[in-house]
Amino acid sequence: MSSRKLTVSDIVGMKGKEKIAALTAYDYTSAKFVDRAGMDLVLVGDSASMVIFGHDSTRYIGMDEMLMLTEVVARTVKRALVVADLPFMSVHLSKEKALENAFKLIRAGADAVKMEWFDGCLEKARAIVNAGIPLVGHIGFTPQLSDMWTWRRRRGVDEEGVEELLREAKGFEEAGAFSVVLEMVSVEGSKRITESLSIPTIGIGSGPYCDGQILVYHDVLGLYEDFKPKFAKRYLELATAITEALKEYVSDVKEGRFPSEEHSFHMKSERKE
Ligand code: KIV
Question: According to the CATH classification, is domain 8-237 in 3.20.20.60?
Answer without folding.
Answer: yes
